[in-house]
Amino acid sequence: xxxxxxxxxxxxxxxxxxxxxIEAAVRAATEKALAEGHK
Length: 39
Fold this sequence. Notes:
This is Dihydrodipicolinate synthase. By secondary structure, the chain is mainly α.
């Protein structure tokens, strides 16, 4: 959400923050989708 210019906020219980390697994969996929014009 934050990458797309929207407020995502912190993770709420019972979910935990993503592990760094998973966060990097999600970030890369999101950046790719945004670069391709997806909103």
